[in-house]
Amino acid sequence: MTECVECGADVTLHDDLEVGEIVDCTTCGAELEVVDTEPPVLERAPELEEDWGE
Amino acid sequence: MNVGLLYSRIRKDEKLLLSELRERGHDVEKIDVRKQRFNLAEAPEAFADLDIVVDRCLATSRSLYATQFCEAYGVPVVNSHETAEICSDKVKNSLALEAAGVPTPNTDVAFTTEAALESIEEFGYPCVLKPVIGSWGRLMAKIDSRDAAEAILEHKATLGHYEHKVFYVQEFVEKPGRDIRVLAVDGEPIAAMARSSDHWLTNAAKGAETEPFELDARAEELVQQASDAVGGGLLGVDLMEAGDDYTVHEVNHTVEFKALDGAVETDIAGTVVDWLEQKVDAESLEVTA
């Protein structure tokens, strides 16, 4: 469990968390990027860029 | 083996790969390309002692340069820069398919709104206008009338950056409410799914429903040819059923496979890692020889 940097609500995290992964805040809907796992640290995820994709 | 994974976002696809690689005891170096500085002559520290690099960059621009740097440093990378270069640009993608004799939707490229409008009128309505760079079905336009064509072209010419002034106009293919995504390694299909939607766009990213699809010999042949046409690698080949045959509309080079993983029984990540292991074995044999 850690705190959403956008709204301050608790964010539940799963066990196999990876740096670079995106988690959603279920309270405010913000996309949060995992920047560290021990302990978990979240930042606001970058906005979608036009050249993203597969 | 020692595997580098280029990324800027870890999606479910990357998690599946990471998990499989680690379970098999491989060393994995996650390389966040946002933190790298690519010197012309000297490789960043993260690239030392890697047997292979897997390009999973989310941003096309980064994928193109990062793969080129890998090759400049002499680090094997999948997919190759050549493959990324062709697949990332719809014009190059279509030209490669056409040159290889792979059936692909008829397409015009025009540089002005006037010339694009002529192409649109010639294709007739509906036809399709696509951005040359882009993914997930974004900014695709099905044009149903001249009024719509004029408006979309004006918007693209006025509001878009220079790539939107390259107008990629394509015939509209009457597909049976679905298209087919094939995940393949060097042209060998791993698994395939049909993506169905009531919407004309059937991308999984747009919420299309997915189900396993059994490839026939012709589809397998086209997947191999399409893969060869773009330089091979781990690819997502997209086909549409058109009459008695198929048409290949594009090949994706940083292919997402989480939707496919959910739709089929095949162990996707396992098969991809099998392929990576074979690649590395082949490279080391070449070096030894």
UniProtKB/TrEMBL annotation, chain A:
InterPro entries: LysW. It comes from the Archaea. It holds the Pfam family Zn_ribbon_LysW. This is Lysine biosynthesis protein LysW. It comes from Natronoglomus mannanivorans.
TrEMBL record, chain B:
Keywords: Amino-acid biosynthesis, ATP-binding, Ligase, Magnesium, Metal-binding, Nucleotide-binding. It comes from the Archaea. Residues 94-277 form the ATP-grasp domain. One of its GO terms (cellular component) is cytoplasm. GO terms for biological process: lysine biosynthetic process. Pfam families: LysX_preATP_grasp (PF22626), RimK (PF08443). GO terms for molecular function: ATP binding; coenzyme F420-2 alpha-glutamyl ligase activity; metal ion binding. Its cofactor is Mg(2+). Pathway: Amino-acid biosynthesis. The keyword Heme does not apply. PANTHER family: COENZYME GAMMA-F420-2:ALPHA-L-GLUTAMATE LIGASE (PTHR21621:SF2), RIBOSOMAL PROTEIN S6 MODIFICATION PROTEIN (PTHR21621). Belongs to the RimK family. LysX subfamily. This is Lysine biosynthesis protein LysX. It comes from Natronoglomus mannanivorans.
